[in-house]
Amino acid sequence: MELFLDFFRGSDGFSLLSVYHGILRLSLPVLAMFVVVRSARSLLGFRREPEVWAWLRLATGELLPVTHWENLLGRKKNADIVLDFATVSKNHAVLTRLDDGGWTVTDIGARGRVEVNGNRVLSGRVNYGDTLSLAGLEMVLEPVSQEEARLQANSRTKAGKGNSPGLTLLLLTVFQLLVVLELVFNRPEDRMTVITAYGILLGIQWLMFVGQKLLKRSGFEVETIAFFLMTIGLGVVASAYAEEMYKQLIAMGIGIVIFLVLGFCLRDLETAKKLRYAAAAAGVLLFLANLVLGRSINGSRNWIYLGGFSFQPSELVKICFILAGASTMDRIVTRRNMLGFVIYTAFIGGCLVVLNDFGAAAIFFVGFLAIALLRSSSYPNALLILVGVGMLAVLVAAAVLAIKHFPHVANRFSGYGHIWEDSFNKGFQQTRSLMCIAAGGLFGLGLGNGWMQYMAGEGAADTDLVFAYVSEEWGLLMAVMMIFALAMLGLFVVRSAKVARSSFYTIGASAAMSILLTQAILNVFGTVDFLPLTGVTFPFVSNGGSSLMACWGILAFIKACDTRQNASFAVKLSDKGGKRP
User: What is the chain's percent helix, strand, coil content, to nearest 5?
Assistant: First the structure.
């Protein structure tokens, strides 16, 4: 290996290595662009056509399509199935598909009775051929014919069509191998660690891809974007603390397990609804443990140490928070669990204020607003937004008190907007970050060649300032590509949410994406002094096991919202690979 490196280093002022670095600095951004753009084209190129899961036949013979797993029936114009009859309430009932293909109907407090075959029900099963009556308006539930299902399946967008996920993953693999070569040349003392760590990453991503292929799933773009960001993140860790690459891989493995287990549970809407209560309880327990056992780092008491490992409970609570907030349609249009969710959110916000973690508090608040806006389909639930405004006022008041009484918080806010006036104290981190971003240019100085590595650890260069770290060593083009990758996921969620099979998936994916994007915005804008530095990580890239595990868990909600054929794990497949009727 040393002879190989010596040959490339050359002699008499000529170095094949310098030529290689020049080519690499140009090729890495190009490959990254191909990986992200191909994934984005596949994610955003689908037609947003509705899926028809059943029909409601009126007495007049008119057929009304049932296009979701949860359908609001009523006179309201934005109802899923609009019934323009005077006796029907604006929000009358919810028709829900079960995992076995059957249906249930739930009375949501309408003026008229809800009946199945002449018997009044508050919540009961509806079989195909049954007569459903809403305040005297009768209709028969009928299945989609096999021919209709076949034509619909053929017309729906197939995941990866025109942009093979396998080819995209192969391009990502080439990108990763070039990254390994760069690190081996620049960090020969860590070459075995680098080769082993990236070898494990390659093995895991291809194992997941092949596993999904065996399960007849053809969509892998969401995971590809995550692995692309992970590739950059591992490069940051290799440059800062190569010995921590294994710890980051362990966190990734745990995160992927959370992603797969949660994804399996999300296939069944009833299981997902039940899991919600356990998740809410787990979030409470995690914060209570944090309050009792937490240790303070950089002024925030949000770390728990177990043996030689540490983790941030607030990161894992993000998953619990999304599950608790992603209500199903029958709960959105009633007051049943509105108050409970408000209390749960207030508890989380209070804990974060006590722990002095205002960055996490801001992220949870944005997640709460996303959930509140999506659940405000009725006037009672619009109170969620008012509660959110009140919570924001409390959060601002708590931040003012923290600035007054806690020096580390005061330093961050007092330096905001004035970093160059005190560049050796309050503005030290951000002024150095800006200089390193400028030094890196468009293509970077090369992996392991930057100055930001000397600010890792106490200076938080590999966590809070990772945007500057990547800009310096990888180049501004690569740093922008990180943001672009997350933005494409955000656009995908916006498009998918409108045709999601359930409000549970719409709210879950929207809240998940809001949290990820808020993290990225706070991280990037804090680094360049557009916002105060809040100590928030960049998803999948920053060094930190708790954040990485949470990001993979959050990704499951985005994956579950995918309505392309055979792309999501939200639809069970038959043994032949077809969709269950």
Answer: 60, 10, 30
